[in-house]
Request: fold
Amino acid sequence: MAYTRIHGIKTTLNKALDYIENPEKTEEQLLVSGYNVDPLSASIEYRMTAALAREIKGDYTKSGGADNLAYHMIQSFAPYDKITAEQAHELGKKWADEILQGKYEYVISTHVDKGHIHNHIIFNATSFYDYSKYDNYKVAAHLREVSDRLCAEQGLYVIEKPNLKKKSPTHYEWEQRKAGTSWKAQIQSIIDKAISETNDYESFKAALEKANVEVKEGKRISFKITGTGQERFCRGDRIGEDYSRERIIERLAEPKKKNREKVMPPKEAEQGAAAAPAGTTPRERQPVFSSYDKKIEWQAQRTKLAATKELAAALLTIRQENIQQESDFDIRVNSLLEKSSGVRSTMAELSGKNQQYKDAAKYLLAFREYLPIKQEAERQSPFTKKRFLSRYESELSAFDHAAAQLEKLGVNTNVDPDKVITLVKDQDGKISGLAAALQEVTDRISSIRKAHELVDGMKQEPKREQDKGRDKEQEI
Reply:
């Protein structure tokens, strides 16, 4: 059973990477690997990718965008999960690959120094693929869903139907709940009972006092069960989202019992009518039937409208694609599939070349930015050089890394990075145009297949009616 977390990194990227790559925690870094980045130079690469993104797409922070350098994901397995460190590492890679879709550099490490195995994944907040910033809006639930599915595929235990909107409990708390000794679960039960039996806040607190629950008022409300192992007060919002002071007051104001729905199925309505007092007139009972009838009628109209829209869309597709006979459906689809395959091949070729341009631009920018510092370091006297090198250690490391990568790529350091960036933008424009064309072809294929299915369904309808007729004759 894996628990998942994510948080942003704004300033301490070097420290965070050093922590997760700690040899003492990762079997001498045997359990450390990177995607599209060398873990040892990840901090430099992340910053260079972000710098190139600013040149191509502008500075996100100036327009109110997120200023995170990276994000740190944690996937923690329970001590009783039968999983090795190597298996956990591979599962963590699959998790990161699905979440990040291959668009963000990341470093993954598996820690084995605690009582449970856990993965740390730090990925660049800026995509090396399209230079967009990672959108972390409501991502926590998605992390959990993907992790649970991958764990289930490996035969690991997962919580069925978890409430993904709520914060996951710790391993300790989950085990306490399972054993029936969780004081948080006890407090929840006592609070729920008190709310169901009272209508105002003071009566609610009095009910808790009778149940041996102390209430501590402050900026936030806190609770503690007396005479148990609970040593400290616990804030209501940490017990659960429905146990803050605001939510408790809201729950106290809610009706204790919901009125029964007026809309009944026909059989229940008939029974209700039969059991009605003798003086009750049909007009007085009519709303029950009319509300139900209106609901059924509305659903029928909605279904009919949806079917009409599908039929209209299918007829339009048939005209636009010039389909004259049934065999034309497959002919058109196969032709479009061949076309889409050619577009994808061209896109892959352009993307491959453009990635080389992007890498060259990234390192050329860094080389140009840090070259003055490198030149100044070479001019330092023996008395000042040590202090200078210490002050500009990160910048000089970035320069050396950029120079080494440019040499590996075979790119002359005198090339103007602005010209390469212009080339990158031009290639991006071509790829975007091809992507739009591919989407248009894909939509056409989908429309033709839907139209074909609708035509098949209409052809099968008379046969189904005949079969129904035969069945009725046999019954008679």
The domain at 327-460 is CATH 1.10.287 (Helix Hairpins). Residues 361 and 420 are 6 Å apart (CA to CA). The first strand starts at residue 2 and ends at 9.
